[in-house]
């Protein structure tokens, strides 16, 4: 099948430096962090304001794309599970999906809560959360 | 910034052939469709069962990656909005995010409800929905 090229639109700036520092999910204690967007994407980002809820898509660049099954949350007591039924960062296309709250906006820099990615992780897309039709 | 290569893990089989046929969101009347995964990813998909709720990530391959602002839902009465605050398929990295219900599983073919992508659209990842910590 054809392949496609992902071009990062920014990077995460976080105090989390490696996987052993990271909580398993952002709402389990990740420190606030910054999404530093490339100024080239200022127009795409111009309507993001403090208080917004956003979905952030990242490219988890320090993962193993050949893994197809894992024990969820690394728990040896849980059965090995196909990665498409888990949120393992090790997966064929290592795209992270994070729901965050925007705390502050400074140009193309977004301070956010609820994102557990490692420092330097590429950001590839931002979207509004999935919601009811009436909210769109 | 470094670029990354997305390798599709399957394709959508749908009766929707072009953008003018597609509803704006899957829960506005998309026909049921099939996610035909490459058998190479059978292990990653092996725990997906009928009844599961899934997030499906697609690569929207018939879109314009240079668009940074749109009028939401194509409505000329709505102000132009930066694409990171919209679900426009035209965006720098054209990744579609769809919440679906699995109706049936036949090997690596998943019949799903709630997905509005065009026939042939590449599928790049499947994940469980974002939920409460207790559900993980």
Question: What can be said about this structure in brief?
Answer:
Chain A is mostly beta strands and 136 residues long.
Detailed description of the structure:
Two copies of one chain form a homodimer. Chain A starts with a strand and ends in a 9-residue tail after the last strand. Chain A is 3% helix and 34% strand. The first copy, chain A, is an all-beta fold. The first copy, chain A, has a six-stranded antiparallel beta barrel. At the A-B interface, β1, α1, β4, β6 and β7 of A face β1, α1, β4, β6 and β7 of B.
pLDDT < 50 stretches of chain A: 132-136
C-alpha Rg of chain A, in Å? 16 Å
- Major sheet of chain A: order of its strands? 2-3-8-7-4-9
Beta percentage of chain A is 25-35%
> In total, how many beta strands of chain A?
9
- Give the largest interface: A-B, 54 and 54 residues
Task: Give me the number of helical elements of chain A.
Answer: 1
Q: Which of globular, elongated, flat, extended, rod-shaped describes the shape of chain A?
A: globular
Mean pLDDT rating of chain A: 90
End-to-end CA span of chain A: 33 Å
- The helix content of chain A is under 10%
Assembly type: homodimer
The structure class of chain A reads: mainly beta
Largest β sheet strand count, sense and barrel closure of chain A: 6 strands, antiparallel, barrel
Write down the secondary-structure element order of chain A. Answer: EEEHEEEEEE
């Amino acid at each position: 099948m054809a392949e496609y090229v992902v071009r990062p639109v920014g990077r995460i700036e976080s105090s989390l430096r490696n996987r052993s520092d990271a909580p398993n999910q952002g709402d389990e204690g990740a420190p606030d962090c910054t999404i530093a967007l490339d100024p080239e994407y200022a127009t795409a980002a111009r309507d993001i304001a403090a208080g917004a809820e956003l979905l952030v898509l990242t490219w988890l660049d320090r993962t193993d794309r050949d893994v197809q099954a894992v024990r969820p949350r690394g728990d040896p007591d849980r059965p090995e599970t196909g990665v498409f039924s888990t949120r393992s960062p090790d997966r064929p296309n290592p795209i992270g999906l994070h729901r965050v709250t925007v705390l502050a906006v400074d140009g193309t820099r977004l301070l956010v809560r609820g994102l557990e990615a490692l420092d330097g992780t590429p950001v590839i897309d931002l979207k509004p959360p999935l919601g009811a039709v009436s909210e769109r």
